[in-house]
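Dig into what follows:
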Amino acid sequence: MQFSDRRAVTRWIIIATSFVIVSLILWNTYAFFQIFKEEERVKMQQWALAQKTLANADIDADIALPFEIIQNAHIPIIVTQQGKIVNYINIDPSLEKDPKQMQAMLENLKTQNDPIKMEYVPGKFQYLYYGDSDLLNKLKYYPAALLLIIFLFAAVVYNFYRSTKMATQNKLWAGMAKETAHQIGTPLSSLIGWLEYLKAEGTVAESTLEEIEKDIVRLQVITDRFSKVGSEPVLETLDLVAETRASFDYLQARFSNQVHFTFTAPEGPLWVAINPALHSWTIENLMKNAIDAMRGKGALTVAIESDGTHYKINITDNGKGIPKNQFRKVFEPGFTTKKRGWGLGLSLTKRIVEDYHKGKIRVLHSEIGKGTTMQMVYGVALKD
């Protein structure tokens, strides 16, 4: 617990530090932007002063410096007098022939910076409107680009952390499953031996021995299922209808009449590549979850459909339903709404369907208080 708390504290310290660093970078970028913008305004004031000097210069005046200042301006400039454009520089030549576009350009410059008032002769004024330089325009997008990079980096880190966590959990569940199979194996071998002994003694009724043998076979199936978790199972081309029906019939016989079972499927075999032991596990697990959601009373339907390229198994109940924001979460390891649940059933089911059988599983539809439909989709396999 202390180790987990330390990791959480460390994680929050890293997040807080990253936030502070990003904030400082953005603040410094904004400050630099403002400084650069102020420097450009000073240059425009110098340009206005140079323009005034040239306008009032006599023949003997030295105009080299003012002329150089005017020529070196690389910012779009429009000068107006009494609301009319009287001069401009660094404006797209294509705008010169269209007064409406020049006026639109002027309105655009008015939104970028406050004008500079120039008194070129006593009592007469002109207004200098200027835009931002190319460098300043590029700096505007720097914070957005920085935030995008940080967001992408955070997404990569999150996905890496999530993938690592899920890989660790999968290894844990696989290890637990294999250990469970190993632990069941020892007493199961002993039970098989005792069953043979009872058969040889002949003191127990044949019907009783048959039921004991059925339960032992069932335990062997369960052990086989657990042993396959974490390893690549052998797939066989089997009839999906027959395999699903067998699991359906097994559970139907073991639940009360308060659950109304319905099974529908198209005629003829539907060939699919599956592992029979793992497929029966998925069907039984989904059916048991449906029965639990109905609290042992309601209607449960298993329907198989075919569209020619895919086979779909829909398992529908009229239980409590699943909130829409939990449609994906229900398949995460450890997620459960049951008081005594481990949150492994649907996680292992998803792994079997998608990793082993190369299919898809999802919550097709669910409504609170009305029920849920879980759907598995498999690709069609050709029968040799």
